[in-house]
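# nightly structure sweep
# worker-07 picked up a monomer target from the shared queue
# config: single-sequence mode, recycle default, output format = structure tokens
# input follows
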Amino acid sequence: MSVVFYHRTTSKNAELILAEGFRDACGRYMMDREVSGVWITDRPLDANDGAAGEALLEVRVSIPTADLDFFECVEEGPKGHREWIVPAALLNSNAIVRLLRCDP
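# output follows
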């Protein structure tokens, strides 16, 4: 069984991801600590949600969602979606990625 997640990025990065796989990004992302990995969400995000980029990737992961619990970013208050920062190596070896949309 697989679970579908989404990753918003630029069209250039989407091409690289489809050709070579994900790469970890590092940053604080308004957190109190630095994190490293790939942002994925349980629904497609857009600029209204703070997600930048014209390309939307579907990330179909073939591992149990419980195995991703450690990587979930849980914040206080409602935000309407769930998000995870998952190591690129884990996604590259356990996911099928396809381009859903690339807006101009």
